[in-house]
Design brief:
Length: about 300
């Protein structure tokens, strides 16, 4: 297949690209087009004539997102409008990448058809994006607790943050060189989630693209289990043969919380997705073993 992919230089995007090319032999159009430029997006799709679109790019500069909300709206909601409308006009399927942070985190185990109730501006932008994309026939792929190598960069761009992104990689990077690592624990941050492997998310997205009647549907890209930050840290030590005595557990720095609200338990239930697409639901251990395999071999894990 020829697939136009946005955000291919980013963490999730580069994993999607590697899955499409290495596993499926797809032709990935990864050229960066300014997603806020409607005409450029339309021409991009018209010129390349892809068989499908995966829209994964986002503005990931949190200070800019909070400080310039009009621009953030353009980057999230309007850009998704442009890509989904271009795909609709071309008569091709489109997947738009979303997040578990569309949920409020008060309950956990959210299913694909639970109603979102975001607690912060990022979640609001993603929930608004979902609505716009669903109304234009796209499939929403919510990813959560994403792990995996960053194939497009030598190191991960961020260390630990109030979410689960880069959490495992940050622990491995520290402990394998004998450094101590403090796992943040607080009811005020994202404390429980359903881990995934980024390449596995790419596989679910591709399967959704080639499965009939997925337009307007939501899929969850994650494994079968949810974990706390402490549980994930301990399992990471087991799978990567690291010393758990190098872990400390403490509140996050106050600066991480100032003026911000984060969802507490954003664990997802992906059983409908797995039943519908016949995609696997790996355990946390299997996902971590997959990450270790990819990190050490440079090859995609088979889950
Ligand atoms: N990472 C996670 O833990 C996580 C968790 C849940 C959901 N997600 C979702 O996964 C998706 C990707 O996130 P990520 O963490 O992989 O992000 P990322 O690493 O920050 O990558 C963002 C990508 O978007 C591109 N981009 C930014 N502004 C652009 C613009 N104006 N026009 C075109 N491209 C632009 C960037 O290209 P340049 O580098 O060239 O600017 C980069 O390729 C998002 O939808 C996000 O909501 C991620």
């Amino acid at each position: 297949m020829k697939i136009a992919l946005t955000g291919a230089s980013g963490f999730v995007g580069c994993n999607i690209a590697k899955t499409l090319t290495d596993r499926h032999g797809d032709d990935v159009i990864a050229e960066r087009v300014d997603m806020t430029d409607r005409a450029a997006v339309e021409h991009h799709i018209l010129d390349h004539k892809p068989d499908a679109v995966i829209h994964c790019a986002i503005l990931n500069d949190w200070d800019r997102m909070w400080g310039d909300r009009r621009y953030a709206w353009e980057c999230y909601v309007e850009a998704s409008r442009y890509y989904t409308e271009a795909a609709q006009q071309a008569g091709i399927p489109c997947v738009v990448v979303s997040t578990d942070w569309v949920f409020d985190g008060t309950r956990g185990n959210y299913t694909e058809d639970d109603i979102p109730n975001p607690t912060n501006f990022y979640g609001f932008l993603k929930a608004a994006t979902e609505l716009v994309a669903i109304e234009r026939g796209a499939t929403i792929a919510r990813v959560s607790g994403v792990n995996g190598p960053h194939w497009a960069r030598p190191t991960t761009p961020r260390a630990q943050d109030p979410g689960f992104g880069y959490f495992v990689a940050s622990i491995v990077d520290a402990l394998e060189v004998g450094k101590r690592f403090t796992v943040w624990e607080s009811p005020l941050i994202n404390s429980k989630a359903s881990p995934s492997l980024a390449s596995m998310c790419g596989e679910v997205m591709r399967t959704a693209l080639v499965t009939p009647h997925m337009d307007g549907k939501i899929v969850h890209c994650c494994g079968s289990e949810s974990v706390t930050r402490r549980e994930l840290a301990m399992q990471t030590c087991e799978v990567f043969d690291l010393d758990p005595d190098l872990l400390d557990f403490a509140d996050p720095p106050a600066t991480e919380l100032e003026g911000k609200v984060f969802p507490h338990d954003t664990s997802l239930d992906a059983s409908w997705t797995s039943r519908t697409l016949a995609t696997p639901l790996p355990t946390v251990r299997e996902l971590l073993e997959g990450f270790r395999h990819e990190r050490t071999t440079g090859q995609l894990a088979h889950l």
